[in-house]
Amino acid sequence: MSTAIEAWPALPLAEWKPTYETLHRYTQIVGKVRLALSPMLNHYWHVALYVTSRGLTTSPIPYGDRTFEVDFDFLAHELRIQTSDGERHERELGSQSVADFYRELLATLHGLGIEVRLSDRVCEIPDATESLSDDRVHRTYDPQAVRRWFQVLVQADALLKEFRARFTGKVSPVHFFWGSFDLAVTRFAGRRAPERRGADAVTRESYCEEVISAGFWPGGGPFPEAAFYAYAAPAPDGLAQAPVRPPEAHYNASFGEFLLPYEAVRTSADPRRTVFDFLESTYAAAADRAGWDRQALERPLIRPVAVGQVAAEQPTDEVPAPS
Fold first, then answer.
1. H or E element: which one contains 243?
2. How far is the C-alpha of 309 from the C-alpha of 184, rounded, in Å?
3. pLDDT tens digit string along 165-198?
4. Buried b / exposed e along 73-84 (16+ C-beta atoms within 10 A)
5. DSSP bridge pairs for 170
């Protein structure tokens, strides 16, 4: 049963910050399960979660001669665990402490015959003082706020997948990274990047090649509002001064990224066009200045063929209307 909600709802950070901070930690706990049991992939792609039509999923995780997956359902507000041999467990997502969520998830996995040891260290939250297993401070879950955030995530996931489809070179899936709580897609030049001095192992592996990345983030720290973002690593000379679209987009020196406030997107006449203008113009600015072989790495978008039509796909450079 669908619930009426705006396609691009308002998402002011101040109004859902306690829920955001709690949910961020919930996703870290689930993400650490995938990290602990999944085979290592390049650029740490094996840690990410993925957007579904109902929430987020680990995707299938191998365990012995079976697999299992952990899903957040943000429509029914449930956490669901399913195994390839037919086991299934569901429980309500609600206002409970992070410590209780941590303990109950491990107990449920144990009951399903899945043993996993997790680090309870909080990742990429600079002001975090409690470990995940001891955190009884963060315990807020507002279903309506989560639903609004998820609706934005659905829109961003679809647009980033269309953007991804225009690139023929190496490109990541559209990942939800639970450390930074953002949705991201990354394009690769096919060239090694200079090694970062003093970088930790994760950073060295993640940025061992030249990349241009873009995504959506609900805000925090020195930029307390939701935004689409884009950056290049390493950043080519002159990137910060490059003109990009739309007018509301700007280069944030503190982040080293281009940012487009989400509010400017949702209040624009055409949010899809606004986001694509940002993604395409920031990518072009970075790729041109870094000397990427754009002719070899890009292609026009191929429109999907509608059901019942003759299967004759036609390339187009235009942003397709939603079907």
1. none
2. 33
3. 999 999 999 999 999 999 999 999 999 988 877 8
4. bbeeebbbbbbe
5. none
CB of 61 closer than 8 Å to CB of 33: yes
Q: What are phi and psi of 97, to 5 degrees?
A: -65, 155
Cα separation, 67 vs 56, in Å, equals 17
Closest to 27 measured CA to CA, from 122, 113, 103, 108: 122
What CA–CA distance (Å, rounded) separates 296 from 169?
Answer: 8
Q: One-letter amino acid identity for 121?
A: R
Contact 115, 40 (CB under 8 A): no
pTM, rounded to two decimals: 0.91
64 vs 114, 203, 258, 268, CA distance in Å?
Answer: 9, 30, 44, 50
Helix crossing, 143-164 with 271-290: angle to 10°? 50
More confident residue, 313 or 209: 209
Phi then psi for residue 185, to 5 deg, are: -135, 140
Full 3-state SS string of 5-49: CCCCCCCCHHHHHHHHHHHHHHHHHHHHHHHHHCCCCHHHHHHCE
* Closest residue by Cα to residue 173 from 189, 149, 157, 191: 157
Alpha carbon separation from 176 to 52, 57, 170, 204, 319 (Å, rounded): 11, 9, 18, 20, 24
Residue 291 tokens, joined: 């000397």
Return d(Cα 155, Cα 271) in angstroms, integer: 10
How far is Cα 183 from Cα 286, in angstroms, rounded to an integer?
Answer: 20
